[in-house]
Amino acid sequence: MASEFTYDAWMEAQGIPIHRGYYVEDLRTVEVGPWSQRGCDAAFIQLAGMPGVVESRVQEIPPGGTLPPFKSSIDEICYVLMGQGSTTVWSNKSDKRHSFEWSPRSMFLLPRNTWHQLSNMQGDHTVRLLHYNYAPMAMSAVGNPEFFFNNDYEEQLPTADDLFGEAQATIQEHIAEGEAGRTLWQGNFFPDMGVWDKLMHRPGRGSLNRSVYMMTPGTELTMHMSVFGAGTYKKGHRHGPGRVIVIPGGEGYSIMWANEDSERIVIPWHEASMFVPPDRWFHQHFNVGEVPGRYLALHPPHQFVGMGESIEDLARDQIEYPAEAPWIREKFENELAQRGLKSAMPNDAYKDPDYTWDYQGVADN
């Protein structure tokens, strides 16, 4: 198959499964195959909205196994889909090796131009990891893929013992005049995104939404996670391509569409589901479970954001509840009824575009 991007030609030559489409309902069960370059079973996940911008792939570590050491010239985020294990990171320019342990829903950085080795600490369970990086952009800039994997250049790692310690809140950002600030958490290791409770109220998307914004120091990799209550849903919105969304917990569905006349893509989700809204497609997230829903968004480079959390004309990029199509609410309430549940959406939110959500009693860390 002819490829538009250098990365695509390289990916197709690896001989492992490539999963395309709009979503993967469960990354823990998606088909993988032997990958000689990394010495493991793996698969690429290239959904609509990703080509030319970001890479994601699933890699396995067999029970009790350790993968061969590997060095890449591209920073990479790793999210644990299942299993328990450990990572060792080092550089031949540094004396110290950094080792840390992880478990399901952990997230950590594999730093560029350094070596890493991944191990499965369990003898009776397979580990599955989701990897995310900007390889397509890098290979478009330097058209020799081998440059990124067989490069002799190494960087010196910091000597601090807490290089992979739990993330710390370091920056309070004010997004726009009159808006609430947000805490930006910086770190190379986030222990469990399924229970992370260091959240701030973010009322702009509705549904008593709370969020955390994250970045890894020394890189341009950024992420955020949103948490919203049972029986509620967020406002429809859109942005640029390449934002990989993986679910740490909860049950629900999302809807994506390009414009008023286009097909609506309905995506069922639960833990370990993944989807990517294509460039400038509207999308909307619905919680039809009995516990708060969570989605973790791994961001493309800022050049592809398509819009910011603060923009001059929000009406172009967000649909307020009173302006949404009636079938949105009808489908949501029908989905809840099928589960014996009721909507927690206040009726006034459907009437007043300036409706103020009452966060009283909702934890804010």
In brief, what are we looking at here?
The chain is mainly beta and 365 residues long.
Explain how this protein is built.
By secondary structure, the chain is mainly β. The protein has two domains: 16-143, Jelly Rolls, CATH 2.60.120.10; 168-350, Jelly Rolls (Sandwich). 7% of the residues lie in helices and 34% in strands. Strands 2, 13, 14, 16, 17, 18, 20, 23 and 25 form a nine-stranded mixed β-sheet that branches. β13 (168-174) and β14 (181-186) form a beta hairpin. The radius of gyration is 21 Å and the shape is globular. Residues 174-180 and 307-314 have low confidence and may be disordered.
Count of individual helical segments:
3
CATH architecture of the largest domain: Sandwich
Q: Report the CATH C-level class of the largest domain.
A: Mainly Beta
Number of strands: 26
Round the mean pLDDT to the nearest integer and report it. Answer: 90
Which characteristics define this entry?
8-stranded mixed β-sheet; 365 residues; mainly beta; 2 domains; 9-stranded mixed β-sheet; Jelly Rolls; 26 strands; 3 helices
Structural topology:
Blueprint: H1 6-12, E1 18-19, E2 23-24, E3 33-35, E4 40-45, E5 55-61, E6 70-72, E7 76-82, E8 85-90, E9 98-102, E10 107-110, E11 114-120, E12 127-133, H2 135-141, E13 168-174, E14 181-186, E15 189-190, E16 200-201, E17 210-215, E18 222-228, E19 236-237, E20 244-249, E21 252-257, E22 265-269, E23 274-275, E24 282-287, E25 293-298, E26 318-319, H3 326-338
Parallel strand pairs: 1-4, 14-17
Antiparallel strand pairs: 2-23, 3-4, 4-5, 5-12, 6-11, 7-10, 7-12, 8-9, 8-11, 10-15, 13-14, 16-17, 17-18, 18-25, 19-26, 20-23, 20-25, 21-22, 21-24
